[in-house]
Amino acid sequence: MTQYFLDNNTVLSGEKDLLDMHLVETVPELESRKAVLSGEVLRWIAREYADLFCIPVAKQAKFTKRGWQHHFMARYDLRRCKDHGEIGSVDVEHARRKVLSLRAEIGRFHPDDVFNMDDAAFFFRTTPQYSITLNPVPALKQKKDRLTMVVAPERRSSL
Predict the structure, then answer these.
(1) DSSP helix/strand/coil, 78
(2) What domain of life (predicted)?
(3) CA distances to 8, 84, 111, 149, 155 from 72, in Å
(4) Where are the domains of the chain?
(5) Mind listing the pLDDT tens digit of every residue in the chain (159 residues)?
(6) Residue of 126, 143, 33, 30 lying closest to 78 (CA atoms)
(7) What does each C-alpha distance from 19 to 14, 37, 42, 143, 159 come to in angstroms?
(8) Cα(80)–Cα(49) distance, rounded to whole angstroms?
(9) How is residue 55 annotated by DSSP?
């Protein structure tokens, strides 16, 4: 029996408790590796453990987000922690002044020399913003590695 269950005087009574024991021990293991554990991954691990322990499908929980996951997290006091990025607020008035000065600058050019540019980014290394944790953990910044696409037609043209 693992340390978490020994410390909490938990009595195991069947397949559900065996499954719970292994799942609860998986959470701190993933925390120690700084891995993000989303609800979807937790439910996938639960299904994998159920298959590993040969729990008949008729005895398995339905492993739903609002049902099984909610009750499992409440039983073992698991939390959802949100990753935060940089902390800071935007100076809205300063941004307005900059927009007005930029419009005045663009107004000096001939319309054929003005381009409307838009970009789209694919952040290929991001992790889920929420992680399921047993202990409070410091927030980690999201990885911002990305692939960016830019489209810039002339102002007078249409796509």
Answers:
(1) coil
(2) Eukaryota
(3) 16, 25, 61, 42, 56
(4) 1-159
(5) 444 444 444 444 577 888 889 998 998 888 888 788 888 999 999 999 998 988 888 888 888 888 889 999 998 888 887 765 555 566 788 989 999 999 999 999 988 888 888 888 888 777 776 777 777 666 566 677 888 888 888 766 655
(6) 30
(7) 9, 17, 12, 33, 56
(8) 22
(9) -
